[in-house]
Specification:
CATH topology of the largest domain: MetI-like fold
Largest sheet: none
Shape: globular
Order of helices and strands: HHHHHHHHHHHHH
Helix content: over 70%
Radius of gyration: 23 Å
CATH superfamily of the largest domain: MetI-like
Length: about 270
């Protein structure tokens, strides 16, 4: 009886997590005249026209390119800055490390809506409005606390004896970081990279505020602007949602082992 209850609970959790995606997928296959039933039953006349229409009637290819470049640049910058900061906090003898880490984490406590106005003024003053760099700089700022927190714990989990042995063998602190600690921290770096990339891929508020044309508009804003004056193209919105979700799901499945290793690093000592 206990096994049945557990299986039923697992099935409910899986359905709760996967249900919205299944809903979107079914809706994306329906012609417009079938979008009248809730929940969306299986389409009587399934079609791929909605997927073609996404690219035919909207600059969706450009929007995907914008999101890919912004998310990739944000991930690279966050890892480059965050890994060096985490290494210093974990291994170097620096005064006030705990205070600095607390200050970094406090940055993530501010709700985005409270910072969007001053950030907009700064972006406009720098002449970066409606550019990729406006989003990259903002996303990097807000993803660094998570990056530094995860990687600091991961570098701490690496035995100090390995770091000291590298110094004894003639490495400078930076060489020890690059040649010894960085390869050992790869699972944590992989997990952090996925989390930062997903955050940048899905962010909406800053992208809506700092971009105004398709030149730099990202996926969430692009999909939000699909509705016209007199109608909401639910099927196209669903098709676009499926298109942009599949790459993230594939990447997560490809690196799920690294992600789990990274997120559980340091959780158990023994």
């Amino acid at each position: 009886m206990g096994v049945v209850v557990r299986l039923f609970a697992v099935a409910l959790i899986v359905l709760y997590c996967v249900g919205p995606f299944i809903w979107q997928f079914i809706t994306s296959l329906k012609p417009s005249h079938e979008l009248t039933t809730l929940p969306p039953l299986l389409p009587e006349d399934p079609t791929l026209e909605n997927y073609l229409s996404v690219f035919r009637t909207h600059p969706f290819g450009r929007i995907i390119l914008n999101s890919t470049i912004v998310a990739s640049l944000t991930t690279v910058l966050s890892l480059a800055i965050g890994s060096l900061s985490a290494y210093a906090l974990a291994k170097l003898n620096i005064r006030g490390k705990a205070l600095f880490l607390a200050f970094v984490l406090s940055v993530s406590m501010f709700p985005p809506i409270a910072t969007v106005s001053p950030l907009y003024l700064i972006i406009r003053l720098l002449g970066l409005r409606d550019t990729w760099w406006a989003l990259v700089m903002t996303y990097t700022t807000f993803s660094l606390p998570l990056t530094i927190w995860i990687l600091t714990n991961f570098f701490r989990a690496i035995p100090n004896e390995i770091y000291l042995a590298a110094l004894v063998d003639g490495c400078t602190p930076f060489q020890a970081f690059r040649r010894v600690l960085l390869p050992l921290a790869l699972p944590g770096i992989s997990a952090t990279a996925i989390l930062v990339f997903i955050f940048s891929w899905n962010e909406f508020l800053f992208a809506l505020t700092f971009t105004s044309t398709v030149k730099s508009r990202t996926i969430p804003v692009g999909i939000a602007l699909f509705p016209g004056i007199h109608e909401i193209p639910w099927a196209e919105i669903s098709a676009a949602s499926v298109i942009v979700t599949i790459p993230i799901v594939v990447v997560v499945f490809m690196f799920q082992r690294r992600i789990i290793e990274g997120l559980t690093a340091g959780a158990v000592k023994g």
